[in-house]
Each structure stands twice: as C-alpha cells, then as structure tokens.
Amino acid sequence: MFCTALSYITLRLLGEGADGGAGAMDKARKWILDRGGITCIPSWGKMWLSVLGVYDWKGNNPLPPEIWLLPYSIPIHPGRMWCHSRMVYLPMSYLYGKRFVGPINSMVLSLRRELYSQPYHQIDWNQARSQCAKEDLYYPHPLIQDILWGFFHKLDESLLMQWPFSKLRRNALTTVMQHIHYEDENTQYICLGPVNKVLNMVCCWVEDPNSMAYKCHLSRIKDYLWMAEDGMKMQGYNGSQLWDVALTVQAVLASNLVDEYGLMLKKAHDFIKNTQVRSNSSGNLNLWYRHISKGGWSFSTPDNGWPVSDCTAEGLKVVVRLSQMPSEMVGEAIAVDHLFDAVNLILSLQNSNGGFASYELTRSYAWLEMINPTEIFGDVMIDYQYVECTSAAIQGLRSFWKLYPGHRSEEIEACIAKAVNFIEGIQQPDGSWHGSWGVCYTYGTWFGIKGLLVGGRTYQNSSSIRRACDFLLSKQLHSGGWGESYLSSQDKVYTNLEGNKSHLVSTGWAMLALIGAGQAERDPTPLHRAARLLINSQMEDGDFPQQEIIGVFNSNCMISYSAYRNIFPIWALAEYLNHVILLSRSHSV
C-alpha cells in the first residue's frame, strides 16, 4: 500500500491522468480501493498525505514535538533513540505540531475522490489512525501502543492546541526547528538519509519559503538521485562510496594484482584519505545528542557527517594496509594522527557489553521497540549492537595494532577481548549469526567468524567457529554455491532463494568465512565446488551478473549494492587462489 499509493499520487502530480498509463493507473487505483483505500496506508504515508492535503491530520497517531522538551534521563527521549529514527521523527513532529497542509487545489480534491472507498467527509479519522493494509504490516502495534497513542491523541487535541498550553507547543516547535537546522548545517544539507533530508527541506520551506536554508536544500537533492538503466531513482543514502571503495580495495589487495591496478589503488587511497571526517560536529555535542565524529568515516562522503562504526573500521583497515606499500605506487600514507583519531572513535563506540552499534552507543532499552510506530520496519527504536559492526571494529583495531603496538595497546586488547565475548554470546543455536545489514545469516556468519579469528580463536580451539563452519557447510547447495533469500531477514529463519538458486555474493561470503577458518586444511572440496560456480558464472566481458537483492536494513527493507556482484566473487576467488590452490601446491612440493 505504501509504495503503490505514493507512486500513484506521484504520477498524478506529475501529470498522469487518472485513467492513463495504458491501464496502469486503473490497476493501481483498484488495488488500493480493494484493500480499503488509502486510510490503510502505513503511518509514514499518512503523514505525507496529510501535508499534501489528501488525508486529514486527525487520522495520524500523535507525533508531539513536546517530547523533545523532556529530560534526557527519560528512556523515551528522542535523543536516546537510533539516530535514523530520531532524525526522521524530528521533522515529522514539526509538521504534525504545525498541522501544516499545502494548498488545496483541484488535484488534491480529485485524489480525495479517487483513493477512498467512501466520501472524504464521512471518513472516521480516529478509526483510520490504526488502519494498515496487511501487505504492509510487518510490525503490528501492540495493545499498549494503541492505548498510548489514543491517550496522547486526546491530550493533543484537547489541551496542547489550546491556550495556555499552546505556549508549550510553540516552545517545542522552536526547539525542533533548531535541531533541524543543526542537522542541516552539519551535513551540508545532505542530512543523514533521504527521508529526513526531504522532510527537513519541507520544514525549512514551511518556516520560510524564501530562506537560504530551503535554497541550500534544493541544491543537494541531486546527491540522492540515481539514473539507472530503468529510470531515475532516489537512493537510500547519498551513496555508498566509502563502503564500496574500502571493500573493493581489500578484494584487489587479496588478488596480489597490485602491479596491474596500482593507479586504481592510488585513486582509492586518495579518496579514502580525503573522505575521513576531520572534525566533530559544531557546538556542544551533548546538547544536540551527537557522538564525536572526528577520525571516522561515513558510509558515503564526508559531507554526510555521520561516521559509522564499521565504515570507520573498514576505512582504517585499508589505509593501514596501503600505508605499508610503496608510496610511488599507492601515494603517500595517511598521517599518523589521523589513524589515532580513527582508533579513538572506534574505542569510544564500544558498549559496556562489548558490542558495537552503528552510529552511536546504545542509549536506551530494547523494550522501547514496543512503541515502534512504523508498521513497516523492525528494530528501529534504538541503535542495537550488531555482529557486523562489532567484528569490523576489532578487525580494524587489530590491523592498526600490528603496525602501532605501542598506541593504547591495553585499551585495544581489552576492547577486542570484550568484543569477542559479545560475538560468542550472540551466536545462534544453529551456529550462525544473524546479519542485519546484508542477507542474512550467511553475511552475519562471515563477520562472526572473522571477528573471532581476530580475537585469537581458531577452528581448533573454538567451538563457536566449528559450529559456524558446520552451519555454512550445511547450507551449501547442490550447485556448489550458497543462495540466501531476503526472506531470511524478514522472517528470521534461514531461507534459500526460490528454486534453490545460487547467489554469487552469498557464495563469496561463505567462501571467505570458510577459507579464513581453515577449511582448506580439513577438506577443500566444498571450496573447489564453490569456486567452480563463481568461475563459470563470470560473463565474457569480465563482469558478474546482477542477481537478487542482497542488502537489508531494519529487517524488512532491502537495499541494492550493485558493486557487490563483482567485489565478493573477486575477493573470494583471490583468497581461494592464495589459500587453497597455492597452499595445496606448496604442500605437494
């Protein structure tokens, strides 16, 4: 419903007729109406349609801006939530608090007639607040949430919009707008992600249509637009530049083809050095609920301004590796104090239980998920700790420590030891780890094994690694590859692709994990079978085919990593050559 309704409305706003699109508009409208009309759109859609004037604000669950005035010590304070949720609900609360509605024109009135199963003026908006199409309902509201929203709905309508409590609303809106401007200015108007970027832009326009802030926002929209082979799209971030480059460099270095690709490595090295965030956000970080950022790397570019634990770790790994290579080949090494800054950031992100979250420390409690209002996403309320982030963090620290064993060595060793215990503690009973940023158990298990290896665990001394290898081997397909479906992430149960189809990226992850855990010494046959699949899948131009979507976030939203189709087959085959084929030859000599 969310995608269908918004796509339909967007097409109408762009000039497509209600009966246009060679029947596509009729089909979409029928699909929407057959499921109860757009009162059944999830809450994010309800908010957008309220701004447009196609839906009434009374049909929204409360998004009171006053929550930003609460003491930070209260667990539900937005400053303690996951930064993506915090930054999305910040501008949403402003628009809700203002009850802003755009101009009501003939198009808006027509959409009101087209997309509801009953006349607009007869809709029970209070009932509509809790309606959501079953196709979209990934996280149903618990009863406690419905009670909570019902209470705040009555409170907001009866008190907060009336004098003298309206003064509190004005103060809250002022505070929220200050936070919006802070986010805009410290990210060069790119913002953390596309959702809060566009919402912030609307808020700046509502505040002042002629403001410089609004104009700055307009100039950065293009950062999110991607012209693909099948049309223009809005990216889920302003790119994955740093992440893709760091992984690509590691794949090329593993191949030992550095003489052939020295120029590429030099360009990548320069990019990574120039992409490091070199200062913290402005002002009092505690006032704006921001973690330090100096020394980190974001997922994309430094303008984004939000370093991520695993991105920082992968960036650190690469610049440490390249700093040990001839400068005439890969360029000058990164400044040592820049490495120290990266280490400092990583160390600052470890939680007391040893795990690493994504952008910040985990600031609140998992029970907060009971008030997850999104319906369409899971695990969005706090910054959880992840096997991927934890493993990457200690891999980065270990690579640094090997080169600079005298710098904060006790802290680094303690950090790695705690992280290893955390990784072992969250292993699934079947030996896998659940991956939250890639599909899914194959991805998580690769990181789990790599993290334990960094901590000194081996197949021989670690039952966790042995169980993980058994898990991966049990999932190898008849074709020799692995092929995990996005349904694993959604349902939290390992699921093969339809028809037991192999996926080259899943196969690469599994191979890298098994090779790292010494599978070649025990029985190389599974690796030979997997390598044969990768080799035979390469196309004549050297490319590997794009297959099913392989990235994920928040359990139920998939994301495309188009470069993965080449990065991981290359990386896996490189490790296979060096640690399986050449190893067997050296043993036979």
Describe this structure in words.
Strands 1-2 form a two-stranded antiparallel sheet. It has helices spanning 2-13, 24-34, 43-52, 83-98, 106-114, 125-128, 143-160, 166-186, 194-207, 212-219, 241-255, 262-275, 309-323, 327-330, 336-348, 387-403, 409-425, 441-454, 463-474, 487-491, 504-516, 519-522, 525-537, 564-588, and strands at 225-228, 231-234, 551-553, 557-559. The protein is built from 24 helices and four strands.
Q: In a nutshell, what does this entry contain?
A:
With 589 residues, the protein is mainly alpha-helical. The protein contains 24 helices and four strands. The protein is globular.
Descriptors:
589 residues; mainly alpha; two-stranded antiparallel sheet
Poorly predicted parts? none
Largest sheet: 2 strands, antiparallel
* Overall 3D form: globular
Span between termini:
64 Å
The topology string of helices and strands comes to: HHHHHHHHHHEEHHHHHHHHHHHHHEEH
Range of helix content: 40-55%
- Strand content of the residues, in percent? under 5%
Secondary structure elements and their pairing?
Elements: H1 2-13, H2 24-34, H3 43-52, H4 83-98, H5 106-114, H6 125-128, H7 143-160, H8 166-186, H9 194-207, H10 212-219, E1 225-228, E2 231-234, H11 241-255, H12 262-275, H13 309-323, H14 327-330, H15 336-348, H16 387-403, H17 409-425, H18 441-454, H19 463-474, H20 487-491, H21 504-516, H22 519-522, H23 525-537, E3 551-553, E4 557-559, H24 564-588
Antiparallel strand pairs: 1-2, 3-4
Helix pairs in contact: 4-8, 4-9, 8-9, 9-10, 11-12, 11-13, 11-24, 12-13, 13-15, 13-16, 15-16, 16-17, 16-18, 17-18, 18-19, 18-21, 21-23, 21-24, 23-24
